[in-house]
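Inputs:
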Amino acid sequence: MVLWILFAMLAAAVVWAVTRPLLARSAADPAADSELAVYRDQLAEIETERAQGLLGESEAEGARVELARRLIRRSEEANKLAGYGAARTSAARKAVLYLGSALPVIGIAIYLGVGSPQLPGRPYGFRMDVPVEQATASDLVARVEEHLRANPEDGRGWDVLAPVYLRLGRFNQAVDAFQRANQLLGDSPGRVAGYARALIMAQNGVVSEPVRQAYERLKELDPKAMEADVWLAIGREQDGDKKGAEAEFRRLLATAEDPWKTVLTTRLEQMAAQQQAGAGAAGAAARTERAASGGETAGPADGAAPSATVDANEIAALDPAQRAQRIAQMVQGLAARLKENGSDLDGWKRLVRSYVVLGQRNDAQAALTDARSNFATDRQALTELNELAQTLELGS
Amino acid sequence: MTRKQRRGVLIGVGVAVLMVAVGLVLFALRDAIVFFHTPSDLAEKPIEIGQRFRLGGLVAAGSVKRGEGTKVNFAVTDTLETVPVVYEGVLPDLFREGQGVITEGKMDEAGTFIADSVLAKHDENYMPPEVAKALEAKGVKLGEGAKHPENVKP
Amino acid sequence: MVVELGHFALVLALLVAIFQMLVPFYGSRVGDDRMMAVADPAAICQLGLLSLAFLCLTIAYVSSDFSVANVVANSHSTKPLIYRISGVWGNHEGSMLLWVLILALFGAAVAAFGRNLPASLKANVLSVQASIAVAFMLFILLTSNPFLRLDPPPADGNGLNPILQDPALAFHPPFLYAGYVGFSIAYSFAVAALIDGRIDAAWARWVRPWTLAAWMFLTLGIAMGSWWAYYELGWGGWWFWDPVENASFMPWLAGTALLHSALVMEKRDALKVWTVLLAILTFSLSLMGTFLVRSGILTSVHAFAVDPQRGVFVLAIMALFTGGGLAMFALRASDLRQGGIFAPISREGSLVLNNILLTTACATVFIGTLYPLALESLTGAKISVGAPYFDWTFGPLMVPLLMALPFGPLLAWKRGDILGAAQRLMVALLIAVVVMAATLAVMQRGPWLAPFGVALGVFVMLGAISEIVWRIRLGDVPFGDAMRRLVNLPRSAFGTALAHFGVGMLVVGVVATSAYRQEKILVMKAGETTSIAGYEVTFRGVAPRTGPNYREEVAMFDAYRGGTLVSHLEPARRVYDMPPEPTTEAGIHAGWRGDLYVVLGDTQQAGGHAIRIYFNPMVRFIWLGAVVMFIAGAVSLSDRRLRVGAPGRARRAVAAAAPAE
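Outputs:
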């Protein structure tokens, strides 16, 4: 309501200001002789400069003569123009008056088309005061962040926030949060693994030196961590040690259970196919990888998720036609799985993103609608889906 | 001098300056411009050794090798063809594997591109427009996926 | 709520601008002074509404209101306050809002200060001004609305591009825009004069201060951009002939020419047609600058609006105003009466030479900037036109301009005495030759044209001083008399001399730093020392450090000169939290001799860091020269004679609606 009162005041002020001259009595044109005034002014300047000795006597005389000539010419023209403003056009003026008064109406009409008057502002500071029940997920994240900015030594806070970041796809922040939690609370298998995952996601699936160190550490803490072995092997493959990686995959496969078993099997199939195809299309790796992980911001919230990134690596190794086919297959598989069991929120999000990445916006839209109907009762999930829709610019 | 002559002098000076300028522009446009090529352009039509040009594309994944001192070896690819590049100097901030890059320099006999400048200028998609255009012309689509995941615009 | 108020204010501003475009123009056609009088309050209203809109957006940024899409895209809650404010115009949408705000500011200033303008001229000027505002406000509302909302709001924003988080760049766009947009006044006056079909010396007197103000801001804006590029991009270069830099440089060249031709028109009533054409072209080049930057068709760090729809819209605006202005010119220019006559060797003649050289130089920059685009669209070949092109074309054109520059102010109007002028410049010339010989003797290395360039700069600086000395007849008359004359000298004379002095400084800086820069690229380990340009630079090692929204790796260097510590340098490699992008911060020791410039590169596998060290001689002269030019403009503007209108009339203060900060 306050908003509309402010709008009305603003509009009234504008109408008053722009129509006032139309209603005012016509004053004598104050500017009629203003140009002549400029010439007189210039004449006076010449006089002062001459008096101060800055201008020679003859130069001053010449300038005066020239100015005088211009002055006379102007006054002649001004005389001719006298009466120019005499015409009175009251009908037109009335029309203009109505037009001026109508400005706010047109303004409101346009504004309603583009504006969102129903939305309240949500300044960052204000979010801290929203009651917990009404707060959105992002409000809560913001609140924890605010708390941690004030108390950066609160390891538990970082520990809580880190997996949330990872799930939200804010990988770099997740890396940072895991790192801080590890420093403050000491290493734990879960945190070290989370750190490594976040780092892999942040680096588009590349197993870099810090990742390797993290997994080595994880193996010290938990020698049975299959995740560490698998990623270290993938790291070897990325480093070009295909033989070693293959041997390692085979060794791991002997003891592996799902999800790692599937990952390892596809990995090995892939390597075999790649050897046949020769080392083509390697250059496309980075970009496709990024494409895949860009569509994969849902992130590995549990141990099973890295498979997506492994897929990315496999796909990178294919030639373009095969690659497209493989991606399409994957997406179809995911869609089929979700049709049977619709309770996997992350799966839905991944599917929507994949469609967008593939440029199939209609399918993305349809998937989004399906997802929404699956989570019709889950407020939290709906909010997340809305956020996703917003991020991908899908209509809701 | 009459009014006409005076004006003639001014116009003469103007025309003379213009002629000089046109001469300079033509000369400079012949000698001082550099062409932009992608690795597959080079495969189709090799550039003669010693000719300066710009080579643009993506930094091939896994290709960056830091050598002695400030020497860096990497490869520029447009996903179809790849050209090895040697550069001596400090790489720009946004130089990363898989990201767009423009290098300027000459080819040597061995088919290596000797770069004397490396630009990793970027727009929001981390992709120099020249590179993006060239890649798209080659049928490489840069969709949403080409963006860095952190940087997807809402 | 604040955001919606701003949105409504923007919509209302558009309508007021439409009203201001139509009514006063119609009024001046039918001779109705009340309708013409609508222009004043409308212009001031427009400023008020746009200030409100801008203020509301700023509040949204400062309070980190992430329900606004634009804030989400370009801000972050941890960003320091100054960058939250500068973030308002650090993005496409906000910067366009700033554009129209400044446009409205200039329009309102004409309304407020132009009380003495002939009613019909003023109505037409404000009407044309409003038409530009309408075009750009439509552009904002249809393609780049900064007030769009998000529901629900995300947790935090995406942050501002780290290289834009910098004090110099924070205020670079407002100055640049004040320059670009300021030329719109010259354009509006030109088109209004063409509509009326008459123009006189008084017209030039009204146009000149506005052009001067715009020119001042543009000068400073360009200098800030160049300074920023120098210390932020980590290449140690100060000008790259980047298309976006050229886009701001072309209006500057044309604007400088306009400033000088308007002088001829004011004093001598000559060059009318040319001045009007130049006014139209200058603003057209400003629009083109906006188009080149906003459409993102160029390779550039500035291209933050890669959106074809926007590009086409701005192209249409540019075509409309450039084409419209030139069409008016073609139709009406023959109505403008030719004015005073003068000999080729005269003050007017020298100003014409200035105009010829500046516009030709501007044309070469234009060709160099647009040739790659044209060639690509015609043949598909991709080329880049770099520094060598501009060195070959722009450079040679500047040489005669700079040689002739000191002569100009010493020549009399109508008919000048070039030998007399040369006599007065004898001292300056001799000193310049000595400087040339000294430079040659000290440097003893190429490029061999450099000493000539330095001497040319010195000649221009001393020529400016000679002009003042001659004007007060120092040495001719008793010292006391000379001092009295100095005090009485009009401020615009000081302005001229100061501006030319600034040009000289700039030339010296440009030539010295381009020709005699020293560069070293090496790998250093902690404790190692290297020497460059008389400095001993010791690398002390690197240390991590945390800033408000970034973490960095800082390298510590100590620079010694003759055994004494002169500076502690801390170049750094920074990674911002949001968006996580790296930047390089150079360590710079600034001195009169030149700058020591150190950049930290990659960590080497074998240990140590890649380090680049530059010595850029006299590089500060470049920006100091620009600052001197800015001050010169202010001095000139404070001259009573340049102020608008006749003396003795009470002037009302600028409208209460102050620009929003």
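Remarks. The radius of gyration of chain B is 22 Å. The longest helix of chain B spans residues 3-31.
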